[in-house]
């Protein structure tokens, strides 16, 4: 998940374009929190309707050096989020039994603590943590556990970041080696306090892992490097990952509510510019559904991704971490997820991981393997085309 700002504005979001009948006619209606079918304007405006302006409300003093989560984090944004009492009930298709925590899970936790490392799995309260840790996989979160932004959909803490740990690249490499990982995902908090946005630290981690585990593939899930894009891309071009990932997260109409510190066009440009510099490195991006977007808006973002040379896609259901985060406006049906997947391949994505519990880093190794197989199949078809 790209960790982004939450300086919400008091402006209401404009009404969305109606979804096309060809894309949604075959889908069963799903009632949202507003009592409207999924994809309607009533559900699409839900975020704004539930984020009440409260500029004059007093907020308790908070030590900026402390990590702020939940209410402490979202209470400082301009438009306050009213805690939801009646949260949407999860449908059967999204309920997931908690896995039994075996010895591998606790071994992972011990290795991570021994090497003073954080994971986005833990910090963002990922619902798949038991499964992934149980299989010995994790998405490492570098540069600390305090983000410089206040994203109202994310559970990673906000606060004044600590200085970079110069030993972290080595500790990360030792963890990767100890876990015998063949594929590793590195992400981070936003570090707007750093002149390169943290790109140099990413590069140090990539170099150190390659030195100690040369056969390990490395995927990075980077922030937007706001105001530092060219410098960051210069650094990552010199030390490229095996997969370059940056999440768009949601549709442009909802950026002011969900990603006010980010810019939709800037995020697209980040991926396109890196692809132009390193055309052989696959690019990847992810979306959440359930924040009030329409199906057609999701399809349009997918078209924008392909127009900006993005190769791989993930789409998953948004789940509110607490009552103090943005509410879930709808639960997307398996049939709709299937439609998104089919449309993705029609648009030419190498790979599309689409489903309620899909997250950007979930089974990232298998996503990469399948993308390679799909690419080979596509090349074989081209080779067999009659001239």
TrEMBL record:
<dbReference type="InterPro" id="IPR013785">
    <property type="entry name" value="Aldolase_TIM"/>
</dbReference>
<dbReference type="InterPro" id="IPR006638">
    <property type="entry name" value="Elp3/MiaA/NifB-like_rSAM"/>
</dbReference>
<dbReference type="Pfam" id="PF04055">
    <property type="entry name" value="Radical_SAM"/>
</dbReference>
<dbReference type="InterPro" id="IPR003698">
    <property type="entry name" value="Lipoyl_synth"/>
</dbReference>
<dbReference type="GO" id="GO:0051539">
    <property type="term" value="F:4 iron, 4 sulfur cluster binding"/>
</dbReference>
<dbReference type="GO" id="GO:0009249">
    <property type="term" value="P:protein lipoylation"/>
</dbReference>
<keyword id="KW-0808">Transferase</keyword>
<keyword id="KW-0963">Cytoplasm</keyword>
<feature type="compositionally biased region" description="Low complexity">
    <location>
        <begin position="39"/>
        <end position="61"/>
    </location>
</feature>
<keyword id="KW-0411">Iron-sulfur</keyword>
<feature type="binding site">
    <location>
        <position position="151"/>
    </location>
    <ligand>
        <name>[4Fe-4S] cluster 2</name>
    </ligand>
</feature>
<feature type="binding site">
    <location>
        <position position="132"/>
    </location>
    <ligand>
        <name>[4Fe-4S] cluster 1</name>
    </ligand>
</feature>
<feature type="binding site">
    <location>
        <position position="361"/>
    </location>
    <ligand>
        <name>[4Fe-4S] cluster 1</name>
    </ligand>
</feature>
<keyword id="KW-0004">4Fe-4S</keyword>
<keyword id="KW-0949">S-adenosyl-L-methionine</keyword>
<dbReference type="Pfam" id="PF16881">
    <property type="entry name" value="LIAS_N"/>
</dbReference>
<dbReference type="GO" id="GO:0046872">
    <property type="term" value="F:metal ion binding"/>
</dbReference>
<keyword id="KW-0408">Iron</keyword>
<dbReference type="InterPro" id="IPR031691">
    <property type="entry name" value="LIAS_N"/>
</dbReference>
<feature type="binding site">
    <location>
        <position position="126"/>
    </location>
    <ligand>
        <name>[4Fe-4S] cluster 1</name>
    </ligand>
</feature>
<feature type="domain" description="Radical SAM core">
    <location>
        <begin position="132"/>
        <end position="350"/>
    </location>
</feature>
<comment type="similarity">
    <text>Belongs to the radical SAM superfamily. Lipoyl synthase family.</text>
</comment>
<protein>
    <recommendedName>
        <fullName>Lipoyl synthase</fullName>
        <ecNumber>2.8.1.8</ecNumber>
    </recommendedName>
</protein>
<keyword id="KW-0479">Metal-binding</keyword>
<feature type="region of interest" description="Disordered">
    <location>
        <begin position="1"/>
        <end position="76"/>
    </location>
</feature>
<dbReference type="InterPro" id="IPR058240">
    <property type="entry name" value="rSAM_sf"/>
</dbReference>
<dbReference type="InterPro" id="IPR007197">
    <property type="entry name" value="rSAM"/>
</dbReference>
<feature type="compositionally biased region" description="Low complexity">
    <location>
        <begin position="1"/>
        <end position="26"/>
    </location>
</feature>
<feature type="binding site">
    <location>
        <position position="147"/>
    </location>
    <ligand>
        <name>[4Fe-4S] cluster 2</name>
    </ligand>
</feature>
<feature type="binding site">
    <location>
        <position position="154"/>
    </location>
    <ligand>
        <name>[4Fe-4S] cluster 2</name>
    </ligand>
</feature>
<comment type="pathway">
    <text>Protein modification; protein lipoylation via endogenous pathway; protein N(6)-(lipoyl)lysine from octanoyl-[acyl-carrier-protein]: step 2/2.</text>
</comment>
<feature type="binding site">
    <location>
        <position position="121"/>
    </location>
    <ligand>
        <name>[4Fe-4S] cluster 1</name>
    </ligand>
</feature>
<dbReference type="GO" id="GO:0005737">
    <property type="term" value="C:cytoplasm"/>
</dbReference>
<feature type="compositionally biased region" description="Basic and acidic residues">
    <location>
        <begin position="64"/>
        <end position="74"/>
    </location>
</feature>
<dbReference type="GO" id="GO:0016992">
    <property type="term" value="F:lipoate synthase activity"/>
</dbReference>
């Amino acid at each position: 998940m790209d960790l982004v700002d939450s300086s919400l504005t008091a402006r209401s979001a404009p009404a969305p374009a109606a979804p096309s009948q060809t894309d949604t006619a075959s889908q069963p209606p799903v009632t949202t929190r507003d009592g409207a079918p999924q994809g309607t304007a009533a559900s699409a405006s839900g975020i704004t309707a539930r984020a009440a302006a409260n500029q004059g409300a007093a907020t308790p003093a908070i030590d900026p050096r402390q990590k702020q989560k939940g209410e402490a984090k979202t209470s400082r944004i301009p438009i306050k989020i009213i805690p939801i009492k009646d949260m949407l009930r999860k449908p059967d298709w999204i309920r997931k039994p908690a896995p039994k925590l075996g010895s591998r899970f606790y071994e992972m936790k011990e290795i991570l603590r021994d090497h003073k490392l954080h994971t986005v799995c833990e910090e963002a309260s990922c619902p798949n943590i038991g499964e992934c840790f149980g299989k010995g996989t994790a998405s490492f979160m570098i540069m600390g556990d305090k983000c410089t932004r206040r994203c109202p959909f994310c559970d990673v803490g906000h606060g004044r970041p600590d200085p970079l740990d110069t030993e972290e690249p080595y500790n990360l490499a030792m963890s990767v080696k100890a876990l015998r990982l063949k594929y590793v995902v590195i992400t981070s908090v936003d570090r707007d306090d750093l002149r390169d946005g943290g790109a140099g630290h990413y590069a140090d981690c990539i170099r150190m892992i390659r030195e100690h585990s040369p056969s390990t593939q490395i995927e990075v899930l980077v922030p937007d490097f706001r105001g530092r894009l060219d410098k960051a891309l210069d650094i990552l071009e010199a030390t490229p990952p095996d997969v370059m990932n940056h999440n768009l997260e949601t549709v442009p109409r909802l950026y002011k509510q969900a990603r006010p510190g980010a810019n939709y066009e800037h995020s697209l440009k980040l991926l396109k510019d890196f692809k132009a510099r390193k055309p052989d490195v696959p690019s990847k991006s992810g979306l959440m559904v359930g924040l009030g977007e329409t199906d057609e808006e999701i399809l349009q973002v997918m078209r924008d991704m392909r127009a900006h040379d993005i190769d791989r896609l993930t789409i998953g259901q948004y789940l509110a971490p607490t009552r103090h985060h943005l509410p879930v406006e709808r639960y997307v049906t398996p049939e709709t997820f299937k439609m998104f997947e089919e449309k993705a391949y029609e648009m030419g994505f190498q790979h599309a991981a689409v489903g309620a519990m899909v997250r950007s880093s979930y089974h990232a190794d298998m996503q990469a393997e399948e993308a390679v197989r799909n690419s080979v199949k596509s090349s074989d078809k081209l080779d067999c085309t009659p001239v």
